[in-house]
Write a structure and sequence with these properties.
With 426 residues, the chain is of the alpha/beta class. The protein has 3 domains: 132 residues, Rossmann fold (3-Layer(aba) Sandwich), CATH 3.40.50; 88 residues, Serine Threonine Protein Phosphatase 5, Tetratricopeptide repeat, CATH 1.25.40.80; 124 residues, DNA Cyclobutane Dipyrimidine Photolyase, subunit A, domain 3. Helices cover 47% and strands 7% of the residues. Helix 12 crosses helix 13. The mean pLDDT is 96. The chain binds flavin-adenine dinucleotide.
């Protein structure tokens, strides 16, 4: 019997999922596995475990995926182990797996896991394959080699729009049964932390691929709020000012290709306007940061970022940082956004830009401390988008402007003129 371990990472869905299709098409017995390595954020700055909203979103997503598998008499094994690669190696030997299949990731640590496993697989004669299910384009679809990905987003966008086509999503795999007790296997129980459902939350939904499709239906087909996205996307308050697809994209409950395909359908059947295009434009930002992460590897996470030639002036002050994280800086826009993050696990894009600028340029603190705190708490945490955006705001990434400072007072007047957002969260 040909046994394969199907390693789920940030691809917690069953449809449009190349690794899932490959595993179920080519092997007799597929063991679906997820390994929770716990908090990975830098404890030097952001102390403590993963934020409870982020944790809850992950658990919801795993429960949903497991339900999907159980409908086919299979089951997701969830383990909590510090070293996923070591765990998989041991398991593969124990159960006699001849292949390990998983999704391709783009950030340094995850890519390192892939190369370590591939190297080991070669020595042991175990087939290791990682398939890209995350991005709109595959690497070969890009009109440049990886090391030639432009340093400026507009050049990337211009070229891919002209020369590359977004891949179409693929359907669901033909999932075969798996009974864990046959292998004496047992995963951990999925226990969701107690979270307070805040009525003020911009993300009043739970994780999982079923919720992801409900949100997509709501934003596109039910409310049709997508038709005004370009005008509302800088909003701060409420559910519909932007799509809120990011938490689902980050854990892979929904793929970028699925969103693009639904967007095309919406444009064909209902309407195509500047706003529908703009959602695609934003997905290209996400796309860009993934390829930038793959291209630059470790540099995304070090103080100098992508600009080693630029002197480093930032320092760190624990008390000042604590004021920022707890929403007690005295700047109302910054404080209300930080409170929203702590109480929901989410913050708007406008909010993120302001609090990041404040930490870096007003408080003079190390950008990596802010990035680590975001990593700990955001329900949509994604290494490429998070560190890419922090570097961008710190002037150490892909921003052609050398200094990107926001005046939070002017920003509040422009984006929260009646003080509704600030009053909601203070
Ligand atoms: C300092 C900072 C940190 C960030 N950290 C993350 C992160 O960890 N994870 C994350 O997904 N996004 C991150 N972003 C990007 C952006 O703020 C969120 O993607 C967006 O707010 C999510 O809300 P939405 O899904 O409603 O976005 P929408 O406005 O509806 O956009 C649709 C989709 O486009 C993508 N997108 C939009 N803007 C960006 C952007 N600037 N960078 C990358 N992708 C984008 C997202 O996938 C998003 O879901 C960060 C931005 C900043 C300034």
């Amino acid at each position: 019997m040909k046994i394969c371990i199907l390693w789920f990472r940030n691809n917690l869905r069953l449809s449009d999922n190349w690794p899932v299709v490959e595993a179920y098409t080519n092997y007799d017995l597929v063991i679906p596995l997820f390994i929770d390595e716990g908090s990975q954020h830098n404890q030097k700055w952001a102390k403590g475990p993963r934020g409870k909203y982020r944790e809850a979103f992950l658990i919801d997503s795993l429960i949903d995926l497991n339900k999907g598998l159980m409908a086919y008499d299979s089951e997701l094994i969830v383990l909590r182990e510090k070293d996923a690669v070591q765990t998989i190696r041991t398991l593969a030997i124990e159960i006699g797996a001849i292949a390990i299949i998983g999704p391709k990731e783009f950030a340094f640590n995850e890519v390192k896991q892939e190369t370590t496993l591939e190297h080991w697989g070669k020595l042991k004669g175990i087939k290791i394959n990682f398939y890209n299910e995350k991005t709109l384009f595959l690497q070969n679809d890009l009109p440049f080699a990886l090391d030639e990905i432009p340093m400026v987003f507009s050049r990337f966008r211009g070229k891919v729009e002209k020369y590359s086509s977004v891949r179409l999503p693929i359907g669901e795999a033909d999932i075969s049964p798996f009974e864990p007790s046959d292998f004496n296997m047992r995963g951990i129980s999925l226990i969701k932390p107690e979270i307070y459902k805040d009525d003020r939350s911009a993300v009043p939904f739970k994780g999982g691929y079923l919720s992801a499709w409900e949100e997509l239906d709501y934003y596109f087909w039910e409310s049709k709020k997508i038709l005004e996205y370009k005008q509302t996307r800088n909003g701060l308050l409420g559910r519909g000012f932007s799509s809120k697809f990011s938490p689902f994209l980050s854990l892979g409950c929904l793929s970028a290709r699925q969103i693009k395909s639904e967007l095309n359908r919406f444009e064909d059947e209902i309407e195509s306007n500047d706003s529908t295009y703009w959602l695609f434009f934003e997905l290209l930002w996400r796309e860009y940061f993934q390829w930038i992460a793959l291209k630059h590897g470790k540099d995304l996470f070090v103080a100098h970022g992508l600009k080693p030639e630029k002197p480093i002036k930032q320092g760190f002050n624990e008390r000042a940082f604590e004021k920022w994280t707890s929403g007690n800086t005295g700047d109302k826009l910054v404080d209300s956004n930080m409170k929203e993050l702590a109480q929901t696990g989410f913050m708007s894009n406008r909010g993120r830009q302001n609090v990041a600028s404040y930490l870096i340029h007003d408080m003079g603190l190390d950008w990596r401390a802010g990035a680590a705190y975001f990593e700990q708490h955001l329900i949509d945490y994604d290494p490429a988008s998070n560190y890419g955006n922090w570097l961008y705001n710190a002037g150490r990434g892909n921003d052609p402007r050398p200094f990107r400072k926001f005046n939070t007072k002017i920003q509040a007047e422009r984006y929260d003129p009646k003080g509704e957002f600030v009053n909601t969260w203070t």
